[in-house]
Amino acid sequence: MPPYNISSYNTDILHGRSSSTAEEPLKGAATLEAEADDTPATKSRKKKAAVAKEPSRFVKFFTDKRLQGAIGLLLILCAVYALIASISFLSHGADDQSMVDHMTIEQMTGHTTEVRNIGGPVGAWVADTLFNQWFGYGAFVVIAYMVLVGLALIKVRKCNFWALTFRSLVLTISLSIVLGFAAFELGAMTYWGGYHGYAVNALLTAACGDLGAVIVSILLIGIVCYVYLNDLITVYNAYQRRMEIRREKQRLKEEQEAEIQQQVAKEMESDPMTPSEQHEQETTDMSDTPDLTFQDIEDETLSETDEFVKSDTEDTKAEEVTETEEIAASGEKTTAEGGPAFLVQKGTIEQAETIEPDLTTFDPRAELSRYKFPTLDLLKEYPVHTNTVDITEQEENKERIVRTLQEYQIAISKIEATVGPTVTLFEIIPAEGVRIAKIKRLEDDIALKLKALGIRIIAPIPGRGTIGIEVPNKAPQIVSMREMIASRKFQESKAALPMALGATITNEVFVADLTKMPHLLVAGATGQGKSVGLNAIIASLLYKKHPSELKFVLVDPKMVEFSLYSKLEKHYIAKLPEEEESIITDTSRVITTLNSLCLEMDQRYALLKDARCRSLAEYNAKFTARRLNPEKGHRFLPYIVMIVDEFADLIMTAGKEVETPIARIAQKARAVGMHMIIATQRPSTNVITGIIKANFPGRVAFRVQQMVDSRTILDRTGANQLIGKGDMLISINGEMTRVQCAFIDTPEVEALVDWVDSQIGYDHPYYLPEYVPEGGDAEALANMTDRDVLFEEAARAVVDSGNASTSSLQRRYGIGYNRAGKIMDQLEEAGIVGPSQGGKARSILVDQMGLEDLLHGIG
Fold first, then answer.
1. In whole numbers, what is the pLDDT of the chain averaged over residues?
2. pTM higher than 0.85
3. Which long-range contacts (CB under 8 A, 24 or more apart) does 100-109 make?
4. Model pLDDT for residues 212-234, shown as the tens digit of each residue
């Protein structure tokens, strides 16, 4: 029996491992080892080892930030001085040449030598050394290198020192030799490539002739192009993107100008003025009337019609108010012709410019027509490493995989590698007669040979006829949210609710449509990327959808994950009218909100039934085409996305009260544009029940610790073999894809939310229908003799304030929601207020005199 290593045994004990064969005999040895560690000699050795590990004073001196900053500043100053001297050398170098060749140190520091170089004798000597004695015009590369290193030392610009040094050296030497060859062949009087280029070309010509020198020059030009190819491609792509943005802006500007011209022409045709009316309008006092201007109109025919003055008579104002009220009652949130539109945000009132609406179609974005979508500058740009896995690492992994398979008598005919952001996929084609199950059993053996954190074998890869072995990269790459949003696949996506989730193994942007899923289940262990994934989903939707087209219902039992999104209340948040907080954190309020969403779903189905439509898209298309009458309750319906961050906590506290409405919404709400995303870090069967799994075909699994958790989420293994930090498996309709989740940090989320919050929003959030729990309350309320003691006082308060809502009664009298709801229902039964209208406030049906008569009649 081989001897057992005492130190390894202690390590096993610390990690909870044991050896059944050697545990008992070695307990005494382990005790002796532990006691020996406390001897003075051992302590002295440990102290010496710790001192040896500390950096020396020499290293500390050169790693000091202040010294690095001083060296960087000195390098920049020296580079600037050398640049000025070099530029002056190009003009006066020939005049100073004779003096520079015989100049001594005393002459440099004295006043006896007169040179024409701006940098003086020292500058003339430095320029002569760089240009004549060294690299010729390649000296400018040396100067640029000094500037970049100096900027890096003073922390102005980040750079890879060794990569910069290598690139600068290649460019300097190549430029010197190529220019030296040109000067040598043309017989130039000056050394374009310096003495270095001249000497190398003279040696090449003598040894290999002119043909050899030409070949070497072409080879060096190819090397420079290869080294700087990626940089040139990046610059070219940036230029192309800038030109595309400029062309797009120009196109939008031309479209806006054309639209303005058409609207002005329509207004002039529809409302011609007589000369007397025009003269009377021109003499009207301009200070008392708001004017409407159209800027950037280049057409000369419109230069005299830039300003339209609205009539200030009282009759016209009354007509405008009446027309505005009629349009608001019909559900079309547009202003009357010529009337100012007021949009409220943060307690301020701002007057917005209004344009005569196009009566042929309804624009849901008209009320927030000035809303601007977030820009890419809000997201952080991470450095892109194109070669995350070098060729050497790929070849070594290939050899190890092949060697391991050969050890078990498994022959393969081909192996190829595909490098992804965090993992590399090795596709192998086994030889004839090899069983796939035999390869799948070698998963642990291959992981041992590759020294990897964990591998995943896909046998076979669907649609390819190969077997895949996914191996984690030693240097994983960050997939930035900015890169995903800026991708063409996301920008050109026609999906109703597109989500840019991350990058696949083949470095393709993975964009999924939430309406096709139609609900999403997200699960994974703590710290594996669930919250970042939810933030990526929300950011994708904010970049793509207008506030009039999308509303969120955010549930955050942990109270900290979604708190940043509370600023979206006036733009993207849907909630109950009586809710004070825009983010739901109380479990009891979650139950009410879920039941309210069920009411919203039923109301939407009633609208679709009346419109004879089968989906939200068909209904909204009819409404925008003005084929549905708003007076019959029809309105534009936005998508509603409910996101629950910690679903397990809701199940533990509420159980069936939460599961039942979620199941109803998951089963029926797809057609009316309501979708759910629930996330949990405890994917056990009592949390993710069969009802939930059956109605959530879209699954996202981050890393979990146990195989049974992976089966609970995905109905298969694989999530337990992920490497974490955003590595996830996405299952959509049974198709599995491995994706590295896009990373969006908290400062990026804050910047995105602040961008939306800084713009004009609606005067209130999107209100969900008020929900009154069942229990026979309606029958009890029918008898007005049993009305609440606060009934009369609440009735007077509602009529006086003009605000009929349950939340106002709660705040005024400090009562609960159920009692306030009963009072509001009693007011409805008495004919004081109208019925609930979902997101709209109740209408008040009586005035103060009528109220008193009504109360005396009831009494």
1. 76
2. no
3. 100/124, 100/125, 100/128
4. 878 888 888 888 777 777 777 77
CA 50 – CA 697 distance, rounded (Å) = 56
Q: Which secondary-structure segment (H or E) carries 439? A: helix 436-440
Where is 721: in which H helix or E strand? none
Q: Who contacts 575 (Cβ-Cβ below 8 Å, separation ≥6)?
A: 553, 569, 582, 584, 593, 765, 766, 767, 768
Cα–Cα distance, 806 to 823 (Å, whole number): 8
Angle at 614 between CA 609 and CA 618, to 5 degrees: 105
The 8 Å CB, 24+ separation contacts for 117-121 are 117/85, 117/88, 117/89, 117/92, 117/93, 118/84, 118/85, 118/88, 119/81, 119/84, 119/85, 119/88
Report the alpha-carbon distance of residue 599 to residue 114 in Å, rounded.
94
Is residue 648 within a helix (H) or strand (E), and if so which, with residue range? helix 647-653
The residues pairing with 738 across neighbouring beta strands, listed in sequence order, are 729
Helix (H, G, I), strand (E, B), or coil: what is residue 262?
helix
β strands within 420-532, DSSP E: 423-430, 456-458, 467-472, 498-504, 509-513, 520-523
d(CA 147, CA 325): 67
At residue 766, does pLDDT exceed 50?
yes
Contact yes or no for 193/138 (Cβ under 8 A): yes
Q: What is the DSSP string of 50-69?
A: HHHHSPPHHHHHHT-HHHHH
Q: DSSP H helical segments within 154-283, as ranges?
A: 161-186, 194-227, 229-270, 275-282
How far is it, in rounded angstroms, from Cα 71 to Cα 442? 55
The string of pLDDT tens digits covering residues 374-411 is 999 999 988 765 555 567 778 888 888 888 888 888 88
Tokens of 713: 């989420």
